[in-house]
Amino acid sequence: MAMAVSFNTESPSGFSLVQRISIFASAFFGTTSAFLLERYRRRHQLRDRKREIAAVRDDRRFEALLGAQGVLLAQANSLAAFLAQFPAGANPFDNLKHIFVGFSKQSIDFSGLAFLGSSHNPQLIIDLDVADASYRMAVDTAAPRQRSINPF
């Protein structure tokens, strides 16, 4: 008495057992693969977005550093032009000779340089502040000198 099972017999719905299994298996694997592909796409989209944000942040930092360097160069050129009007070794504030003072009105904007405080060299932001303050002190010293010698 051997019992034979036929998988090709149609059910009342019109599908055989093999067809039902293949439909359910393909639906399961199709949904699983769609889920995994969407997860892969979102993960890479998030990674690319993080890279873009990092690139924009680095561009802003680079622009802030270039701006600070430009201001320091303008200040150095202003001081050099001021000191070039006097003989070498002479104190520019000793005599009452009237000179043309064309100092730069630029100053360093530290709002863009705040990231330097958390870097491996936070002393750099202090050095920039000291350089900017030294320049302002030179300008503040030369301006009253010019006003005081005008009446003479």
What spatial form do the alpha-carbon principal axes imply?
A: rod-shaped
Number of strands: 0
pLDDT averaged residue by residue? 76
How large, in whole angstroms, is the Cα Rg? 38 Å
Alpha-carbon distance between the two ends: 134 Å
Number of domains: 1
Number of helices: 2
The main pleated sheet reads as: none
Low-confidence stretches: none
Q: Give the amount of beta strand, in percent.
A: under 5%
Topology as H/E string?
Answer: HH
What is the helix fraction of residues, given as a range?
A: 55-70%
How does the helix and strand content classify structurally? mainly alpha
Give me the secondary-structure topology.
Layout: H1 17-83, H2 123-149
Helix pairs in contact: 1-2
Description:
It is a single chain. The chain is built from two helices and no strands. The chain has 152 residues and is mainly α. Helices cover 62% and strands 0% of the residues. It has one domain. The mean pLDDT is 76.
